[in-house]
Amino acid sequence: MDAVTPETMQETKPEIMQGFVFHEHPAVVPPLVDGRETKRHKVMIAGGGPVGLAAALALAKYGIPSVVIEADTTVCKGSRATCLSRRTFEIFDRLGVLDPFLEKGLGWTSGRSFHRGEEILRFDMPHNSDQRLWPMTNLQQYYVEQFLVDAIDRHRDLIEVRWGASVESVTQHQDGVRLTLQTNGTSYAAECDWLIASDGARSKVRQELGLRLNGTAYEGRYIIVDVGVDLGWPTGRLAWFDPPSNPGRTMLMHRQPDNVWRLDYQLHPGEDAEAMTKPEQVIPVVKAHFKMLGVDDKPWHLIWSSTYRASALSLDEYVHGRVMFAGDAAHLVPIFGVRGLNSGFDDVFNLAWKLAGVIEGTSPTSLLDSYSHERHFAWRTNIMHAMKSTEFMAPPSSGFRLMRDAVLSLAGKHPKLRSLINPRQTSVIHYADSPLNTYSADEASFARGPAPGEALPEIKLIDRDGNEACITAQLLDGFTLLSFGVDGKTQGAMAAWAATAVIPVATIAVRATATTDSKTALSDPSGRFAEVYDAAPQAIFLVRPDGHVCARWRSFDADAVAAALAKASGADGSKQSRAGTIKVAS
Amino acid sequence: MREQWTDAARDEIYTELCGALSDAGDRSELFLSRLCLLLIEELGSPQQVRQALANAVLEAAQA
Ligand SMILES: Cc1cc2nc3c(=O)[nH]c(=O)nc-3n(C[C@H](O)[C@H](O)[C@H](O)COP(=O)(O)OP(=O)(O)OC[C@H]3O[C@@H](n4cnc5c(N)ncnc54)[C@H](O)[C@@H]3O)c2cc1C
What we know:
The structure holds 2 protein chains of 2 kinds. Helix content of chain A is about 25%, strand content about 30%.
């Protein structure tokens, strides 16, 4: 028998970029016997980008161990995601990683667009005094990944990140998935019950399963540039169409932490994308733009430049037997409207509680189909908006260009046309036709508020110590039964029902007036909860672990709530395919 | 029921217009002229047409 002991790569010096330190992680080969890893894993995650790292943290919330296989030995380098949505920050909070993101990120609420020299649009992201988090926060993707890696370090009991290990082959069987991994020239076999494929746009797992992305790839190309400069300007989205500095181009500018500014600009037809990333081509474009903005006296330097081409592509299904796709491995969305990474975080937050339920045996494997259903719907919604932004930023044909130019030339004096220029930034997806929703007999009586499939809207409540308590920060990891203005008797009945429910359900009771009652933690003295949720006293909301509502009622009925819970957890016996009948494609 | 004139509806119509204009190809000027003629018939008064005409006149800077 050929036993191999762990091998460690030399740790090299960290690279520093504008204050950020890129640590090299050692690449380690686990103990092997005859070229096989001795331990079989419950969950392996192919790709330790932001989506894979978040998947591991989300599973750890349910006590599910995982191994992340990451080909690289550092967090990502280069220009990638910058804008993180409020929903993403809510997910960070639920994963227990919010603080460093709040500390380092730059929150913003508005943007400005210019045509030639004229300002033609000022837009505001949805934001009001109910909110605790910014609608959008700018932070470089390497910080995002680093903060997730730091959090994983605190969960070493449940998560292993195997740096410098790449997935070479994948085969799946009725009872599990077999992979060939490779680290520093050593190939070995590994096995797991479930594989999450989050290995990015060129997913090796996708190739191995013979799957293809379908959709549209756009012709237009963009140069993405990060520069180091202290402009002393506030954070927000800045866009120029046909600016005097660079006629014919569309330019975008975003401030990031550490005095890094992102500039995106569109290439003219016929310009060679590769050549245009060279400093001698990039510097004059940036210089001219800074001159136009009157900041050409500020010292600046080029950090990175790359090319980008928008595409709207997706797998038709995200669950294939025991392999689940998430993030860029599952779908691609044009960057305009910032839905790529933000939707990847929503993928894994949707998937984790379902997979945990299946692994723990409280839900059938068919629950995973709802992951594919809901998140593919999310992709379709995302591309509908993102394609409109892309078509406006880079018109795909003469008709689009002519109309776009007409709108730009009129929007300064004709405010009604300005909505066509709005960049349609990402927002939370409403899973309106989710198979997990229950439309109760009371549903029609709600004039507004979170309908089945919608995420809980934020509201500031008051806890019994008189402190502000936001509703989205109250949710725990399982299902929640949220009630408004119920009497003591109903509260008792709810607690008794929750204690015997088939799967754990937490209860949160909101009172209309301030309370010192130890059973009622929260109150709504401002009346905002009642208003926004259209909640008359006795109203009940059943909330999924990912914060989406699955049913609501005007009063508590244990049987109705039990039926909705069974449906949302997949335990209602409908369309179940238990572990023994998993469909394995190849 | 009459469809409401909302931002979303404007968005939809805009995209349909872009597509139709692209489809018209090198006859896009004729297409636009025909569309204008049809739309002015929908307007309430000649004054409104004259106002829209004045708004659409290209200034030198927009040429
Ligand atoms: C210029 C630009 C700007 C963007 N801006 C935004 C934005 O503002 N907001 C937003 O939401 N999104 C944005 N995006 C999109 C965002 O960057 C991606 O959606 C995001 O990186 C997807 O994360 P992921 O973890 O799915 O994939 P990736 O980040 O690609 O991570 C995949 C990981 O898998 C690893 N890997 C690959 N193959 C293997 C293998 N065979 N074995 C093991 N590991 C492997 C890779 O090393 C990598 O670490 C932007 C993208 C670009 C290019």
